[in-house]
Structure formats: structure tokens, C-alpha cells
Amino acid sequence: MRALLLVDIQNGFCPGGNLPVPEGDQVVPVANKLIDSGMYDLVVASQDWHPPGHGSFASSHPGKKPFEMGVLSGKPQMMWPDHCVKNTLDAELHPALKSEEIDLIQQKGENPLVDSYSAFRDNDQDASTGLSDFLLDQGVTELDVCGLATDYCVKFSALDALEMMPGIKVRFVEDASRGITPEGVAAAIKDMRARGIEIIDSQKALAG
């Protein structure tokens, strides 16, 4: 039972969005090719869905600027621009993504007191989104992960999939993903590979 997880392919993380990932929109045609391939029994997506004034936003901390380190609930926190606020255009999935073919959209990041990079749980690892239970209930044994951004939400989603669903085979689809910095992408790939996640491209994904 093979599943595809599309991580945060949203307007906010594409050019013109509030927290754009370089070339973020270029993952869309690759993701659509994967969706259309018929290789996956299940296609799921995660969606950042922040309330206004989320604690990870620099604007919620007087004197802080985006991309500075700050503190949230007593722990170090990267301060982000306001992004993917629920019920806004910025939070919507990219309009060219074939979202009508997605079986489940898992929203995340709704708790204003903790950030949530992973599609599976918050950064404190206290609250699960329920996505792992859903995938296990569906009998998923193989999971391909891709999307935005490699060095944050994609990496943490892939690592959590491996940890929260023991025995599942997890692969990272590199050309269907983009990261914030080249250094961050390289470090994320090294980390994923060290944990046993296979690094592949979409051609290999489509080959099975």
C-alpha cells in the first residue's frame, strides 16, 4: 500500500506568497505528475493553517524581525513572517496543484503556542495531528514525501513518519521539493539519509 504525502504546497510558500521558498512553484508540475501516475493508492497533503497572531510570527513579538531567533512557550523559535493564516489566499494550496485528486488534506499549526513543521505532530511532539493513525488504518506500508520546504516541514514530516509508523518505508522525492537555503537542503538530506530514508527523484518514484 503506497501513499504520497505532499507537504505544504501552498501559495504562502511559492513566489508571491508571504514566506516564499525559492522556486517553490516548480514542485507543482512534478507533484501533479506523481498524482497522475497511478502509482499511489492514497494521496494526502498537509496544509499550514495558522490562526492570526500565531506565536511563531515575528509580528507577535514586539521588536522582533522575521528570521531572527526568539522564544515561544519558553523554547527557542525562529521568528517567521505572518504566513498561511487560515482562510486566506496565502494559506490555500497552489491553484495549479491537482488538489481534487488529494484524498485527505491534513491541516496543522493551529495551536498559537507551538509551531508545527511536521505533518504528523507539533514541534513539542506533544500533540499528534492524527495523520499517522489515518495512514496506518489505511494499511500504508510505503510513503513518498515531497513538497515545501525541504529543510523544514518536509524533513520533519519524513522523520516523523519513520518514527511514528515503525516498519514503514519512507522515501524523499528530491526534485518534487525545494528548500529555503542550499545549505539547509544539504543538511536535511544528510539527516534523512542517516536515519534510513531513501533519497530518490520522481523518475524513480514513477518506476515503483
Automatic annotation (TrEMBL):
InterPro entries tied to this protein: Isochorismatase-like_dom, Isochorismatase-like_sf, Isochorismatase_Nicotinamidase
CDD domains according to UniProt: nicotinamidase
EC number(s) recorded for this UniProt protein: 3.5.1.19
Annotated gene: pncA
Enzyme class: hydrolase
Domain Isochorismatase-like: 3-203
Protein name, entry field: Nicotinamidase
Keywords: Hydrolase, Metal-binding, Pyridine nucleotide biosynthesis
GO biological process, one term: pyridine nucleotide biosynthetic process
Keyword Hydrolase found: yes
UniProt organism field: Rhizobium etli 8C-3
GO MF, one example: metal ion binding
Annotated family: Belongs to the isochorismatase family.
Pathway where this protein functions: Cofactor biosynthesis; nicotinate biosynthesis; nicotinate from nicotinamide: step 1/1
